[in-house]
Amino acid sequence: MQYSITSLAKQALRGHQGWPEAFRHPEPQKQYDVVIIGGGGHGLATAYYLAKNHGITNVAVLEKGWIGSGNTGRNTTIVRSNYLLNSEIPLLEWSLKLWEGLSAELNYNVMFSQRGVLDIFHTDGQRDEAVRRGNAMIMNGVDAVMLNRQQVLEMMPLVDENNGRFPVLGGLLQPRAGNARHDAVVWGYARAADRLGVDIIQNCEVTGFERDADGRMTGVETSRGRIGAGKVAVAVAGHTSQVMQMAGIRLPVESHKLQAFVSEAVKPCVDTVATFGVGHLYISQSDKGGLVFGGMLDGYNSFAQRGNLPIVEDVAEAMMMFLPSLGRVRLLRHWAGVVDMTMDGSPYICKTPVEGLYLNGGWNYTGFKAIPGAAWCFAHTVANDAPHKFNAPFHLDRFAEGRPVDATGGGPFPNHH
Questions:
Q1: Which pLDDT score, from 0 to 100, does residue 220 have?
Q2: How far apart are CA 130 and CA 147, in angstroms?
Q3: Which stretch of DSSP H or E encloses residue 374?
Q4: Which one, 126, 127, 248, 303, has the greatest CB density within 10 A?
């Protein structure tokens, strides 16, 4: 069914009793051209672009739980391309361009809202860094606007403008950035991939890999039996190191927890996505009125999807420092997403040393916003056995070759990125 105002009107007259299922629930076949491990945003989008752009439709997406039950639904849904390095900006800007037309392309409203992302600075040093970043964005064709103090306060009137320690000096705004509805992104890609013939198989955990005598990947062992595959693509955010270890590959990846928080619904008061560099606080407001915000990593390795109280206290302190008028707003819920932290803060979208095995992972803080662009490039890599120029820098050998990306200049420490 094509979603439209006409189909909506027809279903309204029938009491909304005739909506078909958005996608099929097939049994796994014995053999596929490509098996994708991971039914989150990256895995489903890769299947969609393999079918749409490269005509490869004999594809299965295997998800151990239900689609979107992993990190796609455990983030703060921010979409932006305000990066610094020439190696990163083209990929994230291409992703943002795909976001801009995604609802129409998928025939599914992913609720992408271009309300802007505003990075507020409080010191002369932060201002210099914002100018440098803004110039890098403009040189790469990305929109960037420097705002003075008054312009920031007009966008964020609740900010404590006279904070004694961290006064507001100005901000760097990317107007085309914003946020989206994370589960709608999963459902939209799943529906679109299914319509192109992709099998989405839920509750199917991969337990091992199968290789021939030459070491080439030939299939996967799963909780629902063996599934043969010409190629296997891994996109399992948060558990990349565990899955790749089953294939005999030890990755330079550590898994950390990153918490997010949602308040009770309040009247509209935050009309952009704002970040405060000093306290590492970022905040936006959902369409339902809840304030969505987050902070730093918990600071220790874990696969648990729950956070610790010291980070709750740290984020609450930052909120009170910059937005004290929200001090009486009650916290509704919070959760932790498991993020794959790499040694240089940048992802892997590449072939692996195992013939027929491909990797999309190590997204640090960037996974959600990169879904369309990264999956588009990953599908290109799987289909052509070669990277697109946008993902060429993000290969596994960059550390051995002494060419890490290192966007934040944090050095070889995953918890610094």
A1: 98
A2: 10
A3: helix 371-384
A4: 126
Low pLDDT (below 50) residues in the chain:
none
pLDDT digits (tens, 9 = 90+) for 372-405: 999 999 999 999 999 999 999 999 999 888 888 8
Strands (E), 64-205: 78-79, 117-121, 145-148, 170-174, 178-179, 199-201
Could you give the C-alpha distances from 44 to 40, 176, 302, 371, in angstroms and in order?
6, 25, 25, 9
- Taking the C-alpha atoms of residue 364 and residue 348, their distance in angstroms, rounded to an integer, is 11
Round to whole Å and give the CA distance between 348 and 397.
10
Q: Are 193 and 36 in contact (CB under 8 A)?
A: no
Q: Is 380 helix (H, G, I), strand (E, B) or coil?
A: helix
Q: Is 246 exposed, middle or buried (CB count within 10 Å of its CB: 0-12, 13-18, 19+)?
A: middle
| DSSP alpha helix (H) spans, 156-296 | 182-195, 240-246
Amino acid at 277: G
pLDDT tens-place string over residues 48-67? 999 999 999 999 999 999 99
**Alpha-carbon gap, residue 291 to 262, rounded angstroms:** 5
Structure tokens belonging to residue 73: 């639904």
Q: Which residues of 169-184 are buried (b: 16+ CB within 10 A; e: fewer)?
A: bbbbbbebbbbbbbbb
Model confidence pLDDT, tens digit, residues 138-172? 999 999 999 999 999 999 999 998 888 889 999 99
Q: How far apart are CA 142 and CA 176, in angstroms?
A: 9
| Phi-psi region at 25: left, alpha or beta (left = phi > 0; alpha = psi -120 to 50) | beta
